[in-house]
Amino acid sequence: MDIVRGKKGFIIDMDGVIYHGERLLPGVKEFVGWLYRQDKKFLFLTNASGRSPKELQLKLYRMGLDVDESHFYTSALATAKFLSRQHPGCSAYVIGEPGLYNALHDAGITINEINPDYVVVGETNSYSYDKICRASHLVFGGAKLVGTNSDLTGPSETGIIPACRALVAPIELTTGRSAYYVGKPNPLMMRTGLNMLGVHSEETAMIGDRMDTDIIAGIESGLDTVLVLSGVTSRESMEKYPYRPRVVLGGVGEIPD
């Protein structure tokens, strides 16, 4: 814990670490207060693509946390950045929420339901059979399939729910094409996070609730890792993986000394 507390920078997942749905998790206010008191550099790096950084800031503010918008980076922003660099001025058919649409728009990517360069899928509450069919037809027609993140499930106030990869799966199975996933554990997103912090990987810790995205992303990027059991991972399920976090905690409230 002394090694973790001594880090200059922290990259922190949100769902299952900071909140469940609209409920702030125990100890989060104390943890964020500690980050500010200790003058730590920190970034909330979330695979959720539905909200913009401003919306995430307002969500935390409603829960009693006042954090500047500059401390948020999402898989939607990472996806928009990836597409704009790979294919400037491209178009996409999108299955997702406003946060994803806005990120793509701001990166100069147009929405196209007829002959897009890409089919982009993120989390959404408006998922439907019609959208699966249209996406599949477009992929058959040559569009490249991209997922904002590879999470199969996510935590909510009512329990575990399907996440992005579960929504992409029917399109992959129908077309026989594998999607490219941009969010964690993709090193593209991790490198961007480190650049935003301006801190070397050896001086940074990754805090998350998922072994298959957060912890492996931290390990492969050279960060020390902290697994919290406040999300989708238990001590029992953690043992299924061939790699280990440096520290396992019940929640982030255990970090402040």
How would you characterize this protein structure?
This is Acid sugar phosphatase. Keywords: Magnesium, Metal-binding. The protein is an alpha/beta fold and 257 residues long. The protein folds into two domains: 2-47 and 184-254, Rossmann fold (3-Layer(aba) Sandwich), CATH 3.40.50; 76-181, HAD superfamily/HAD-like (Rossmann fold, 3-Layer(aba) Sandwich), CATH 3.40.50. It is 37% helix and 21% strand. The chain has ten helices and 15 strands. It has helices at residues 2-5, 28-37, 53-62, 75-86, 98-106, 129-140, 164-175, 187-197, 211-220, 235-238, and strands spanning 9-12, 19-20, 23-24, 41-46, 72-74, 91-95, 110-111, 118-121, 144-147, 153-156, 159-162, 180-181, 204-208, 224-228, 247-249. The strands form four sheets. Strands 5-4-1-13-14-15 form a six-stranded parallel beta sheet. Strands 7-6-8-9-12 form a five-stranded parallel beta sheet, sandwiched between helices. The termini are close together.
